[in-house]
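Batch manifest line 253
LIGAND: zinc ion
JOB: complex structure
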Amino acid sequence: MTGPAPIVIGTGVPRVRAAFTTRAGGTSTAPRASLNLGAGTGDDPERVRANRTCMARELGFDPVRAVALRQVHGSAVYLADAHGGRDSFAGALDGVADADAAATRHPGVALAVMGADCPVVLAWSTDGSRVAAAHAGWRGLVAGVLEAAIAAIADGGGVRVAVGPHIGPCCYPVGDEVRAALQDRFGAGVRRGQAVDLGACCEAALTGAGVPPERIDRVGGCTACEESLFFSYRRDGGETGRQAGIIWIEEAA
Ligand SMILES: [Zn+2]
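JOB STATUS: finished
ARTIFACT:
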């Protein structure tokens, strides 16, 4: 059996580590095979715990201090202190707060945000002093979750961002109401026929929040098209797992 195969992001900052997970190398069975990191997905909690602990070991962060959230499609940002998630990530699995984004300035506190089509966005200050992670589905995007996450770490300095794998416009036709909400907020450039490009929505939100386009890295990939790599809520009719975007500041040795 092969192990986890996360997509590691080069942050350009020595102590800031960031990665997007894939579904490979976990313990969960179909339809959540195999590295399901989402609690409350109908999966066996022991398998979710094992998958989360395994990913923490693989990437090298502390699972006890790692932050997991109860994601509610809003714009609240959980500001994590030095205790981080208080064992909510791989222990109780209950999430430390109702929020779709988290930010911290504390080394050793990893922020883990889940998605299964929705973009997960990781952001860090270029001086390496602060990091943030956000779940940017269409409701959160309209509510301003990315602007809120960037505001939580900006502090007058530079910010860099990685937009994780998400459902592409190839697989994301939406109803008139959703399309109108996103187009009103982010402009006609995000529309692709009957579909919307959520990555373009993220870019528009981020540039609106003051992040220069050249500091926004889109990892690419479509969660719905790439079944061997990613969970997709839409493709799998809701019965699926979750991948994560994870970011943290390494503690000084
Ligand atoms: Zn697709």
